[in-house]
Amino acid sequence: MKVDNEQEAAYMETEAFWQKIQEQRVKNGDILGWDLWSLQPGGEDQGYQYLTVTLYNDPLKMMSNAGNFQAALKAAYPEMSDDDLNKKFENTARSRDLAKRVYLEQIATTKGNFEMPLGTVAGINLMKVSNGDYEKYEKFETEIFQPMHQKEVDAGIRGNWGLLRYILPVGSDVYATHITVDMYKDYNQLFNGGATDGPAMSKDQIRKIQEGLDSRDLKFKYMATLIRTTKTIQHAFKTITHHCCDHKCHQPYCLGTLLAFSRSLSNIRR
Predict the structure, then answer these.
(1) Longest CA–CA separation in the chain, Å
(2) How many whole angstroms separate alpha carbon 119 and alpha carbon 37?
(3) Quick check: 27 and 231 in contact, CB under 8 A?
(4) For residues 17 and 226, is the Cβ–Cβ distance under 8 A?
(5) Rg of the chain taking only CA atoms, in angstroms
(6) pLDDT, tens digit, for every residue of 87-110?
(7) How confident is the model over 163-172, as pLDDT tens digits?
(8) 5-264 CATH pick, 3.30.450.20, 3.30.750.24, 3.30.70.100, 3.30.2130.10
């Protein structure tokens, strides 16, 4: 969403209104969860200011926005009149400009028990990979970088790491094809967590890292802070049976989870 400085207060009211609806959608099984992140640098001429993430375990639900929205709306606001609800929807349209929406699948993630509390900090790295290099790039991330990130998770100096692949949009003109997400419980962990020591890398390892880096173009990096979430037992410890695992995944975004990102100079996903 594009949100001008003078719209900030109205936009926060908009998201507070929608969060109750998203919570009902989680309870109804329409979605797994919903999160609102603030983005930095976040200037009006520096990309987007907010990002919302809606989680699904079924591509049909994600692409068709399936579920009974009216049931969720009435459960969230049983006493609100139709006129008042219409005013809320009108205020939603006035408070922000929905700029972009992308659909992704998480294809790799570290293991751990990070629960993504409010205040979680995430580095969101937008990567572009040519069609012929998808396998090479994804192998590089999972075989070289993921084990390094896992050591940091195990050492308590990182919360989580994940790799996501775009479902839509796709094509030669897309801005990015993959996203990596580096999560920390706060900026203190990010800047003061330290680093894990390991053996010196061989020439072959250094060569593989360079080849991996050459296989993608880092287009842009945002720093995001979690400011709202539908975090429930169903969200944090959801058993994903169709696309993921057959056990309860203690992950912020479980492997195989489908995500709908909405960005804008004040992002939001409806």
Answers:
(1) 68
(2) 9
(3) no
(4) no
(5) 19
(6) 999 988 888 777 788 999 999 999
(7) 999 999 999 9
(8) 3.30.70.100
